[in-house]
Amino acid sequence: MNENSIESSTKQGSIDQQVSDFDILQELGSIGAGNAATALSEILQQPIKIELPKIYTLPPHLIQDYYNYHDNPVTAVYSQLRGEFDCDILLIFDRDEEKKIAALMNMIPPEEVMPETAASTIEELGNMLIGAFWSAISNFIGVELVPSPPQRATDSFDAIIDYFLIKQALFTSISLVFETRFLGAQGAGNCILIIFLSRELYKMLIEKAKEWLQESKV
Amino acid sequence: MRTLAVPALVESLQKMGCEKTDLVAKIAGGANMFYDQKIHTVNVGSRNVEAVKKSLAYHDIPLVASDVGGIHGRRVSFNVFTGIMVVKSFNGEKIL
């Protein structure tokens, strides 16, 4: 795969089969983001909107060059699936965006956000968003999933991605990338949600989701 | 299944004409980025470090420098002419 393959994977509308696969990913994203936004709005007693302006499928080893963040410090929240399927969900927050989101969630100005507040807010937010995506995947494939509790780490962007590349060297995987934007009364903040999954699970997700969507339309 | 790299590495070096008694080792890595004591996850990083140390000891290869453990990933560059190893991580750079 080279850079052209990124380009082609982001322009999935050109091939019929890929259009429908891409529609599934959009649906998965809108269910996950929608459920998380509802939960967040209830907890915070203020309307929170979660948008997914860009969705990609990328080979995991191309993520670092695609984003070009390399040594920039980021905070990551991650949860993995236990059992028969290989799947990890990772949320990555740039330091500035982390502050903006923590400010938005705590309804305070970004300059008043203390590192401990930012860390605990991001962890809670990660729990909610990752949990909502696990539920969406679980509904699509019709299997109850048992994910690990989300864990947080701070490191450079490349080091975080390296961790997953090493893990996934054991199986051929694909990554679904959802660029995510949180919007509230206090402002907005961005993060990247990445789902690493085996090609078998990806295939199953697409097939089952098509059935699920057809059934829900009937 | 054999899962240790050290014996394979030693064997390759010997095939290339290296004397085992001339070998020394520098190691880096073994971080546990997402380690969470609250939920008692297995510390794979420290297990890897112990396994490598045991294997080096088994082969009588002296460990002359190391930068291991912690919670941050590392990037290593090794100068094959000088034997100097540069370890970069979130906390900065170390020369071993």
Strand content of chain A: 25-35%
| Biggest sheet architecture of chain A | 7 strands, antiparallel
- Count, helices of chain B: 2
Anisotropy-based shape of chain A: globular
Question: What does the radius of gyration of chain B come to?
Answer: 15 Å
**Strand portion of chain B, in percent?**
25-35%
For the record, the CATH architecture of chain A stands as 3-Layer(aba) Sandwich
Low-confidence stretches of chain B: none
What is the succession of H and E elements of chain A?
HHEHEEHHEEHEEH
Briefly note the structural class of the backbone of chain B. Answer: alpha+beta
Count of helical stretches of chain A: 7
The share of residues in helices of chain A is 40-55%
Mean pLDDT of chain B: 88
**Any low-confidence stretches of chain A, pLDDT <50, length ≥5?**
1-19
CATH architectural designation of chain B: 2-Layer Sandwich
| Average of the residue pLDDT scores of chain A | 82
CATH class of chain B: Alpha Beta
* Total domain modules of chain A: 1
